[in-house]
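R.M. (postdoc): so does anyone remember the format we settled on? I'll just put the structure tokens first.
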């Protein structure tokens, strides 16, 4: 029974995000424009104003620093996306429940950085974690697309790779080839 409830929650999550992405894709077409980074980043910040956005350069510096503890990295994408590539050491957590399992033994002031393709799903998850009491939660602004577009390394099975799942044809236009 518990597995069925989890599956139903997962399907509902996919339906909601698919509808949002379809709406944004349709809105861009109706307006006669393609998706652009300024548009996406602005919309994410407007929808999730309480989520601190962390640039790829800031995260890269943080991960390279021996003076700071590395944050817990949460990948808020589907397993299909995650399996193509991810940030090294990231835990996949598509939902708040999955994220809370990963963070079960972490103190509420543990630094957590959440990412997805461009920032919508991860900002939503970051907001949910904040509401659950975590005080140092950040969204990787622009997600794994912006990370890879800046020439930073992504991994598959802990090995560097050049591939990134484009999520869809519409959203893939934000990913440099």
């Amino acid at each position: 029974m518990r597995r069925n409830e989890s599956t139903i929650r997962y399907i509902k999550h996919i339906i909601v995000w698919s509808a949002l992405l379809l709406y944004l894709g349709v809105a861009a077409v109706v307006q006669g424009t393609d998706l652009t980074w300024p548009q996406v980043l602005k919309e994410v910040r407007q929808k999730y104003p309480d989520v601190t956005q962390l640039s790829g350069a800031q995260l890269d510096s943080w991960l390279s620093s021996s003076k700071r503890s590395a944050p817990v990295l949460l990948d808020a994408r589907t397993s299909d996306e995650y399996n193509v590539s991810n940030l090294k050491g990231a835990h996949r957590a598509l939902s708040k429940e999955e994220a809370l399992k990963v963070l079960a033994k972490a103190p509420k002031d543990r630094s957590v950085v959440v990412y997805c393709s461009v920032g919508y799903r991860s900002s939503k998850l970051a907001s949910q974690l904040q509401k659950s009491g975590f005080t140092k939660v950040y969204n990787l602004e622009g997600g794994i697309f912006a990370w890879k577009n800046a020439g930073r390394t992504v991994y598959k099975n802990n090995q560097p790779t050049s591939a990134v799942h484009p999520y869809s044809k519409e959203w893939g236009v934000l990913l440099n080839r």
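R.M.: ...and that's the designed sequence above, right after the tokens. Also worth knowing: The chain has a mean pLDDT of 89. The CA atoms of residues 93 and 99 lie 5 Å apart.
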